[in-house]
Every structure is written in structure tokens, then in C-alpha cells.
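Late entry, 3,4-dihydroxyphenylalanine complex.
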Amino acid sequence: MKDELLELKTRVLKKLESVAERSDLEKLRQSYLGRKGFLTLLLKRLEELPKEQRPAIGRLANQVKEELTEEFQSVSDSLTRKDAKEVSALDITLPGRRTPTGHLHPITQITEEICTIFVKLGFQVVQGPEVELDYYNFEALNMPKDHPARDMQDTFYISDNVVLRTHTSPMQIRIMENTSPPVSIVAPGKVYRPDSDISHTPMFHQVEGLLVDKGVSFGDLKGTLTTFAHQMFGPDTDLRFRPSFFPFTEPSAEVDIRCVVCQGKGCRVCSHTGWLEILGSGMVDPEVFKIVGYDVESISGFAFGMGVERIAMLKSGLDDIRLFFENDIRFLQQF
Ligand code: DAH
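Prediction complete; structure with ligand written out below:
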């Protein structure tokens, strides 16, 4: 009987090791320690033993019962702990964990804002290469090899005839080459110049515009750009068209808005002039039309080009352009 008891104990302990569910634990308890369980039945057989053996076997039987009861309790406790863990892993009352989603870069946001204004005015958005042929970047824009205007836009050369574009104006040529008038496009994108200081980065962004049709006048240019500035900077923004020079427009004008910081009184931001330059523009030079094979007698057009960083800085009151490209999350999160 002693052997039976010890064998029973080993069997139960072994079975307890693989118990994973509370219901299995309960079944096991019933079949060994329950009223009709193996151990209970075994104990009943104590009476059949010779008297002198009963005390020793009785003690051993109680010891086995106690040990097993304790072991059942400890397995039960560990199941309780496991349940608690599972419950907390699935606590549906906890607030959700947010995945940081980020947003568009401020320069992308302003680019889209600019393009959207022109799309509403009937312009189409087009994009072209940043690595550009000298021909499109300079030559076809009426800037032959020795033209002094090239100096202002000295650039990164890939080879003698291939450059990183210095402006988005080459898109004027690319579009006109492939389309007959009327044409009305805006071309956003990256441009490159070997400048680097508080107001220049070697890479920056421009949006180019071009409209060609029968009877386009300087009045159309003025109306379109005034509408743009009013949408971008507010309907009360004063504008000034200043005579200027670009090799691919004639006449040319630079457009200023009344300083958004001092309202024209004069401050550091507007260099005490009361005005802020926002873009270059002009009537497309007939020389350019000739280069792309347009009939200069029957059509006319205007073009403009603006710096996206400049517009973004004026809108947000920033004075250091480099902030846009340092990728400091504390800066970017403000947009
Ligand atoms: N491409 C010129 C620049 O980067 C800006 C510009 C001036 C574009 C006049 C135009 C324009 O289309 O008509 O400085």
C-alpha cells in the first residue's frame, strides 16, 4: 500500500505539470482527491490493513494528501496569475495607442497651396526633370552661352551640356515644344544653385507659370498674379509691379507685396522698403516663341516664377530658410 501511495503521488505530480486549463485542474482534483477519487478510495482501504501497520501508512497517506493539496493550490495560483496577465493584455477599456502619422513637409504644403490657387484659375500642373539640358535651362530661354544673365544663376554642371536646373523656367520650353496654344500650366519643383546662407539653400523650390493664347495682355498677367497674391496673403494685400529684366520675358516685372510684418512702415524683414518681393514675371519674349516654333504674330503670353521657401517664410514670419531642411521634428511639427 505504501508503494501504491508513492506511485499515486508521482503520477499526480506528473499530470499536474501539464495542466494548462482550470477545468483540467478541477477534473484532476476530482479524480484523485474528490469523494470518489483514487486517494480517497485508497484511504478507505486502510481498515483492511493489519492493525500495527495502520499508523505508519496512515501518516504517509495524510502526508501525500497534504502535499498534493498544496501542489494543486500552487498550480491553481499560477493559473490565476496567467489569467490576470491575459486579461490585462486585452483590456479593451484602455485608451488606444496612437501611431504617430506625421504630415506633409511645410514646403510641400505651400507648393500644393500655390498650385491649387492656379488650378482653380484653369492652370494645369506639370512636372519635369531636375537634371536638365543646358539647352532648356539657358539656351532656349534666350540665354546663349556667353550671356551675362547666366552669371546670376551659375550652377552645378553634370557635364558641359547637362546641369542641375537653376529654375523651373525650362518647363516653359518643354511644354511649348509639345503643345500648341492655348497653354496654361504651373510647374512646381526643386531647383539648384551654389548659394548657401541664411536666405539661400543650394536646393530650393519654385513654381513656374505660363499662359499662352490669342490676345493675352499684361492686364491678364496683372489680374492673375493679383488674384494669386490675394488668395495667398489675404484680400487686402497691396501689390506693386516693378520693371525688371529677364532674358525670356519682355517687358518683365518683379512683383512685391506690402510687407506683412510692418504693413509698409519699414522694418528689418523688408529692409526698410515696406515691400517684399514675391516673384518674377513678364510677357513671354517673342524670341522664345520663335525657338519653340510658335507664330509670334497670332499669339502672346505671360510667364512667372516664384520661390516656394520665400512664400512660406513670408506667410509664417520665419527668417532662416535653412530651418526647412534641417529636419528638426520640433520645427516641422509646427506646420
Ligand atoms: N526663372 C526666374 C528665376 O529663377 C524667375 C522668373 C522670372 C520666371 C520671370 C519667369 C519669369 O517665368 O517670367 O529667377
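DSSP finds twelve helices and ten strands in the chain. Will revisit in the morning.
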